[in-house]
Design goal:
single chain, alpha+beta, five-stranded parallel sheet, 9 helices, 28% strand
């Protein structure tokens, strides 16, 4: 069992990685989040000498739903924003406005007290950053990517001209898409938004997804010209289709909105994408919006799904083979 003292000690980490002396820290949360997580984050930030405020809303209906206007305004006026919410708020206009206003925004949706104190949260984030930099170079120099897996994933798409993000616990600076000034906690991924209309093939989520949790059986997506045209599997596949249809948004079927590689060796499989997608050598592929990731697609949602042991080739070079990263960390980069 996690002690209150241990929880506060680890809750300091996202603040230590992103805050400067005198910064105001805003915690955005909702009624579906465990109160002990919010209390630990508050105590952790306060113990570092920061002014801390908490804003609590009702839970959003779906990942990517906008927060209320007053919350968005508060986010844009803070120095550091911890998004400790039950639904992802990363891909929202409110987050983009806050980042452009200079806030350092940390995505923490679905985080639990256990996740805050164990697994990916305990990683050496300097080491995570060196691997992210090396893989980021591969993404940035590439023109095509192919993702395959033993469960049947076989997807290929164009990536030429797209810039990778290297998320390693610290808000990063980049002027080519709206997530500059953002990171996550726990963290550890490097990926990009493929070129629209170039993706064809099959995506098989075989471990978990952001809306379904742990998968009882794989969910298979058929993709034609970057749009999902078929969803197959068991009851969870049917549930995914129902969720997408309920959005009444054709762009919710856009796929892949992103392709990213997990780079955190301390991450463990939890059934929650907040940690699962950081697993070293995993791959998560998203459907929905990517206009805040360097793409051009606006949608009412953005949902990640996990491929546990992918093989990933960039311009024919294998960078991940059956879940093993083959690229060496970049020396001297954190």
């Amino acid at each position: 069992m996690t002690s209150p003292l241990e929880a506060v000690r680890y809750a300091r980490r996202p603040v230590e990685l992103n805050a400067k002396p005198g910064d105001v820290v805003l915690i955005v949360t909702d009624l579906d989040m465990p109160r002990e997580v919010v209390d630990a984050l508050f105590a952790g930030a306060h113990s570092l000498g920061h002014e801390v405020a908490v804003v609590t809303t009702s839970a959003r209906a779906a990942h990517g739903d906008e927060p209320p206007g007053p919350v968005a305004a508060a986010m844009a006026s803070a120095d550091v924003v911890l998004l400790a919410t039950s639904k992802g708020a990363a891909h929202t206009a409110a987050t983009q406005r806050a980042a452009r206003a200079g806030a350092r925004v940390v995505f923490m949706e679905e985080i639990t007290l256990d996740m805050l104190c164990h697994g990916a949260a305990t990683a050496d984030y300097d080491a995570v950053g060196t691997l992210g930099a090396a893989l980021g170079e591969k993404w940035n120099a590439g023109s095509r990517v192919k993702v395959t897996s033993s469960h049947g994933t076989d997807l290929e798409c164009g990536i030429e001209g797209r810039h990778a993000w290297e998320m390693a616990g610290r808000a990063f600076d980049a002027d080519w898409f709206g997530l500059s000034g953002c990171c996550a906690f726990p963290d550890g991924e490097v990926g990009l938004a493929p070129v629209e209309g170039t993706a064809n093939g099959t995506v098989v989520f075989d471990a978990s997804t952001q809306t379904l949790g742990t998968l009882e059986e794989p969910v298979r997506l058929e993709v034609v010209d970057s749009m999902i045209v078929g969803i197959e599997g068991g009851w969870q596949a049917r549930r995914m289709r129902e969720q997408l249809d309920a959005l009444d948004d054709p762009n919710a079927f856009y796929c892949p909105a992103e392709i990213a590689i997990g780079i955190n060796e301390a991450a463990v499989l939890t059934g929650l994408l907040r940690e699962d997608k950081k697993l070293l050598g995993s791959c998560h592929i998203a459907y929905g919006a990517n206009d805040d990731l360097g793409g051009t697609v606006a949608a009412r949602t953005h949902v990640d799904g996990l491929i546990r042991r992918p093989t990933i080739q960039i311009d024919g070079e294998t960078v991940v083979e059956d879940g093993v990263v083959l690229v060496a960390p970049m020396a001297g980069v954190a």
